[in-house]
Amino acid sequence: MGAGGRMQVSPPSSSPETKTLKRVPCETPPFTLGDLKKAIPPHCFKRSIPRSFSYLLFDILVSSSLYHLSTAYFPLLPHPLPYLAWPLYWACQGCVLTGLWVIAHECGHHAFSDHQWLDDAVGLVFHSFLLVPYFSWKYSHRRHHSNTGSLERDEVFVPKKKSDIKWYGKYLNNPLGRTVMLTVQFTLGWPLYLAFNVSGRPYSDGFACHFHPNAPIYNDRERLQIYISDAGVLSVCYGLYRYAGSRGVASMVCVYGVPLMIVNCFLVLITYLQHTHPSLPHYILRSGIG
Ligand SMILES: [Zn+2]
């Protein structure tokens, strides 16, 4: 089979309950990646600095206006209007900051401009602002894109084999258990993945932490940039510490913490939906067969 002997994991054809699994494509598609690229209009591949910056500046403008609105006018609102205004602010700011998060993600894919240094500078600033270690995640995320669906090499949302499911798994397979799991996943899933590789690819040769320059996720060429990513996140943490010191922890949580949780929830939700539908194909590499 093309792409170096990939072996598709076929759904069990005898299992009656698996109408969904029957939709899993097990054959090589009748088109190539090149065909797909040709079907996309060429202008979509052009990277324009003015256009990219216009998206970035628009998001910064809206986000700053929301911040100004919340800090300058919410304290003037009569009781109980702040209880309505703050959730509205969190929802709006969470959406806008998700847009900013996505722009930084595009920088990691070198899609912001034709200049790698500019993409990395913009990505580093804005991912750091959202407490994402820019280079660290850029590298693991790139590997995720080139190994999507691989049971051995994909970086995230790697499905467990039945034999690897823990004994308590059966107690979580009900509406209440799933609600608890999804709540934890949407609130803590992203930081837990970055820090402890939760739901990530198993690495046997060391602690797979995105903040650790010697983590097995990275090669020697990449390690220096992991320090830079950590410095970016630490600088923002220090800024937040100073902000909390001058305006109070509650203010910091309200203007930044809750919207950031919404951003994290969005990105876990988006990737969760993209990567865990039962009809998505997964494959293993057939060793020794070219
Ligand atoms: Zn991506």
TrEMBL record:
Protein name: Fatty acid desaturase domain-containing protein
Start and end residues of each Fatty acid desaturase domain: 85-278
Subcellular location: Membrane
UniProt keyword Lipid metabolism, yes or no: yes
GO biological process: unsaturated fatty acid biosynthetic process
CDD domains xrefs: Delta12-FADS-like
UniProt-listed InterPro entries: FA_desaturase_dom, FAS_N, Fatty_acid_desaturase
Pathway membership, UniProt: Lipid metabolism; polyunsaturated fatty acid biosynthesis
A Pfam family that the UniProt record links to this protein: DUF3474
Record domain Fatty acid desaturase N-terminal: where: 25-64
PANTHER family listed in its UniProt record: OMEGA-6 FATTY ACID DESATURASE, CHLOROPLASTIC
Chain intervals for the UniProt region annotation (Disordered): 1-25
GO molecular function: oxidoreductase activity, acting on paired donors, with oxidation of a pair of donors resulting in the reduction of molecular oxygen to two molecules of water
Provenance organism: Brassica oleracea var. oleracea
Record's keyword terms, sorted: Fatty acid biosynthesis, Fatty acid metabolism, Lipid biosynthesis, Lipid metabolism, Membrane, Oxidoreductase, Transmembrane, Transmembrane helix
Residues passing through the membrane, by range: 55-76, 88-105, 253-273
Protein family according to the UniProt entry: Belongs to the fatty acid desaturase type 1 family.
Highest classification ranks of the organism: Eukaryota, Viridiplantae, Streptophyta, Embryophyta, Tracheophyta
GO CC, any one term: membrane
